Amino acid sequence: MLPFPWDEGALHLFHMGGRALLFDVASSSLFALDPLGAALIEEGRSRTVEESLAVVWGRFGNEAEQALDQLDFFYRAGKLLGPDPAAGLRPPAMPYLKALCLNLAHDCNLRCGYCFAGAGSFQGKRGLMSKDVAQAAIEMLLRDSGPLDRLEVDFFGGEPLLNFQVLQETVSYGKRRAAATGKRIRFTLTTNALLLDEEVSDFLRREGMRTVLSIDGRPQDHDLLRSFPDGRGSQALVLERISRFLDHRPQPLYYLRGTFTALTSDFYTNTLYLADLGYQDISMEPVVASPMAPYAFLPSHLPELSRQYERLVEEIARREELGAPLHFFHFEVDTTGLSCLSKRLSGCGAGVEYLAVTPQGTLYPCHQFIGREEFVLGAVDGGITRRETQDVFRHLSFLEKESCRACWARILCSGGCHANAHLQTGDLHKPDRLGCALTRKRMECALYLKLHRKERKARLDGSSH
Asked: What is the chain's pLDDT, residue by residue, as a tens digit (465 residues)?
């Protein structure tokens, strides 16, 4: 019989699009419930099976027992309230390095007001990475990746295209050295798009490089915080460069990435603005900021942000019905949770599987930790020297964080962003509550969209027979 009362860490009942949905954490099963089934589950939060049935019987009569039998069938089939799949697991032994973020430039041609990197300088001296440092980083990646043969290198900044020559040389060197060792490196560029001239664009297309293109949406929102050093807004030129670049680019190789803040919080409208310009792959990210910043989000913003996520996923579902797909990064996630539980335990891999490299060759757990000197891990020429700090990051899975243990989304999000946790709470083991709430809302939207697509596919398959 169903083990009622259940807890939120085992099941998650939520409503979206006028429907009741139930997500089972242990099996990653997703159910659409009718009012009777939802009532039974709701009562089961705090009552035994018998008590829940008695309460619901008064509203639904004999059908209540049939609904309970159906829920019990799913329980016996292992689809509801099964054992925690992560119980007894431990973080894996020190895994191999598989990705690098190369900060080619600690400088930028913009002066974005919300930039966590201090307008590109990362609160330090402005400068560019040399070819020697970049190549030493590639050698470290190839050496420390062990048997892994699929590796990643992200070019970041500042604005990495300020160092385009080294970018070109690094791609050529990396591909040649990887091939010689039986490996392959996939390269990604994150850029504000201002330097996407014909030469750069031709190179990126020729190399098949993935690109993340930064634009915040409408002119009034983008230009408020993404300006040139002289204060001029950059949206018109950014949009022109993106449009020219993507007119001749295979679609699966890019994402438009925007940032929204408390001063420019209407990401719903900005996402649709970009979609209506013809772009299908879009990400909008909440700003990374100290809570003291004037553009930082506060708990009071959560209801409106949640409402916008729900409006956006319903609009995406509506557009898909019309044959106009829109891929919103945070909704295009693996909601099975169990597809690779060991990967879920390692989370983003910061500090262990993934490292950031400064222009001087200093190693940090990720690009967002750069400038926080207590998190220096070593250097490309000598490798990791602070193993004790690296080991802290190896133990930052959701298993190690107290606030994650009772969270229904723990396996899906893997414990959240370590850098943001440290920024907001001062403790790597204490995730930011507001960030967690936004993550859970995005996961609900992803689950809702998954169900919509499954049901739509069933309808289309049925109509074709």
From this structure: 899 999 889 999 999 999 999 999 999 999 999 999 999 999 999 999 999 999 999 899 989 999 999 999 999 999 999 988 877 777 667 689 999 999 999 999 999 999 877 765 676 788 999 999 999 999 999 999 999 999 999 999 999 999 999 999 999 999 999 999 999 999 999 999 999 999 999 999 999 999 999 999 999 999 999 999 999 999 999 999 999 999 876 656 899 999 999 999 999 999 999 999 999 999 999 998 988 999 999 999 999 999 999 999 999 999 999 999 999 999 998 877 555 666 666 678 899 999 999 999 999 999 999 989 999 999 999 999 999 999 999 888 888 888 888 899 998 888 889 999 999 999 999 999 999 999 999 999 999 999 999 999 999 888 765
For residues 316 and 448, what is the distance between their CA atoms, to the nearest angstrom? 11
Whether this model's pTM surpasses 0.90: yes
Q: What angle do CA 134, 139, 140 make, to 5 degrees?
A: 95
C-alpha of 125 from chain center: 30
Longest dimension (CA), the chain: 76
Q: Which domain holds residue 29?
A: 1-84
- Distance CA(58)–CA(37), nearest Å, equals 14
Has residue 5 been placed in a domain? yes
Indicate whether 460 belongs to any domain. Answer: no
Cα–Cα distance for residue pair 240/418, rounded to 1 Å: 35
Exposure string for 98-124, b = 16+ CB within 10 A, e = fewer: bbbbbbbbbbbbbbbbbbbbbbbbbee
In a domain, 56, yes or no: yes
Place of tokens 């307008």: 119
> What is the rounded CA–CA span in Å between residue 80 and residue 31?
10
Handedness of CA 122, 301, 41, 4 (dihedral sign): positive
d(Cα 151, Cα 75) in Å, to the nearest integer? 41
Sign of the Cα torsion 54, 55, 59, 65 reads negative
Kindly state whether residue 57 falls inside one of the protein's structural domains. yes
Q: Given CA atoms 103, 109, 112, 113 in this order, what sign does their dihedral have?
A: positive
Number of domains in the chain: 1
